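Researcher: Predict the fold of EAL domain-containing protein.
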Amino acid sequence: MRSQAINIYEQDPVFSPDPTWTLAEPRLLLVDDEPRLLASLKELLDGQGYHLTTARNGAEAVAELGESHFDVVLLDIGMPDMSGHDVMDVINARGITTEVIVLSGHTGIEAAIGAINRQAYGYLRKPYRTDELLALVRNALEKRRLHIENRNLFARLEQSEKMYRFLIDSSPDIIYTLDQSGRFTYINRRVTELLGFDRDALIGADYAALVHDDDLDRARYVFNERRVGERASRNVELRLKCNEPASSERHFETSLRTISFNSIGLYASDKAPSVEYLGTYGIARDVTEKRRAEELITYQAYHDILTDLPNRALFHDRLELALLQARRKEQQLALMFIDLDRFKIINDSLGHLKGDELLRQVATRLRSCIRKGDTLARLGGDEFVALLPDLEKRTDATVVAEKFLEALGAPFVIDGSELHISASIGIAVFPEDGENDDELVRHADMAMYAVKSDGKNGFGFYDRSLLDAAHEKVLLEQELRRALQRGELEMYYQPQVDTAAGNVVAVEALMRWNHPRLGLLTPGRFLPLAEEMGLMVMLSDWMVDAVCADMQRLQRDGYRDLRFCINLSPTCLGRDEFFRKLWRTLEERKVAAEQLEVEITENICIRNPDLAIRQLNRLTELGVRIAIDDFGTGYSSLAYLQRFEVDTLKIDQSFVREIGQEGGHFPVVLAVISIARGLGMDLVAEGVETERQVRYLQQAGCRVMQGFLFHRPMPVRQLQSVLAGQASARQADVPLQEAG
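Model: Structure tokens for EAL domain-containing protein follow.
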């Protein structure tokens, strides 16, 4: 029996554009419960450029339709679990957009009618001809493509129309038309919202009813515009009147086009139409807030938001202008770099809100100290600069600097609390200290840092030596980075002597730099620089390995009870990797951890005691001893000290140096000794240089001392000689000083 094909078309309602349609590879779902027929159908369609998916029954077909999109479904009617009609009912119920071609073995008309009623695209009775099936699939895909394109186009047109109506009805601009006499023939409701005029009352009124009197001359060109295209008036600003007394004048940016109308039936004529001027069409946009915003943005672009002072950009503009005038008039000008002292501590302890309020008050006080033609600016953070043009002599800048310091010296009151702050001020004068803005700022900054180094709370002028020192610092930075690779670092050791027994019980490890140009440098010359450069971790790792290597060497010589004391940066103690490296180094060098003593300053413990406890406990777990260096020079707290597992207290040399006369009383030294005794700690006095100091410390109960009176720092080879001499003297029962 010849197969029968039925095409069924339906009209879908308007819908949004369908993004799922692709021409590259249409997706087909093949559904049949007969495996051989399903395989044959797939083989037939394979290679036609389709993406094929198969389903062995109705339930699988519904599952596939729920998970994926298909352009055409080739559906068998007679399936036992769920018929093809049932599958089409699910498709229609769920609103699935696809074309269904029914493949049926039924000869009755009921199956075809059921397919038609369920909006199937086509119907083929089995067996069907291959060309009929392929043609029907192509037609279904073509129909789907055209249908989707049509409804997408229709949806876009409808959307465009809705958007156009919305824009006209909800335009933020005043849209109007005028006749040849300049009377309104149309105006939208925005005129009421912005200006307070009744739009109906304006129809037929002259445009002059809205225009500010001072702008009427310019308005004639706008509201009587006859030009078209690019020559028409655009972006002309006019001030329009407001009908409400409380309303302020508003500025409008007006774009105009002239509309030329043709007479009725003109387009049906072959002759050129005559043009008759009918009026003007325009759009007026309110730019009042825009102008205010532009003014605000411009102001903020050149001013500091926090203090309302000129910012870096405006300051440099004024500095360049002042330099031009100074060159032309052959005058001097001064640039002052002002940096607040200890502001970070106040900011961190009280919070950024109070810190910002302090900066605002500082700006107010500094502004009150300058002349009208001077410029005070904030560069950022707690850094301010002052530009003083028209100086008669260099020293005139000192008057302003003294005013600044005096103004900042008075207490600041913030939230009922008094705060005290000072400043360091660096001064550079044109033309002696710099020919351009960059040199003046840089040299004033260098002078400010010199003041900070000298104790802060003062001012100073730039000097050529500051530049030389800066160049030397930069050069030293570069050389320090190469010092490790070149083997220029070396460990020196200063012995700690038990004055009662007369022997060396410990040594303090001190780093030295054998600089090829500057000679032997002590830690004070390069360790602060290394701290700034972030090299302390690398230097500390090298120091630990070098000290442990020397410990191993002396241990082989028989000095197994000698302690080695090393100073560690807080940066190292905060790193987990440091503790692992320290443990590995002790293991590799085969030295006892008890022979190593780590010296830390008391400020590390007081600043964050909980963190310090954890760090010191980790050292104790390794077996390393702990010493507090420079005890008494910082913010000592006995409550915190009791919580730390500390083995040794060191009396700072600043207290030892005060012991200068017989019979004197030095309570701080006595207090430190008493604390060490009470807590069961060892005690070391450092910086001992006289016999008087030795006698006083011995009488007070301190036996172990360190200083130039006994030994200066020495390399490990010299230390070996000292220890060997000590051993020989002990065997001969000779005092240590005589043996030395």
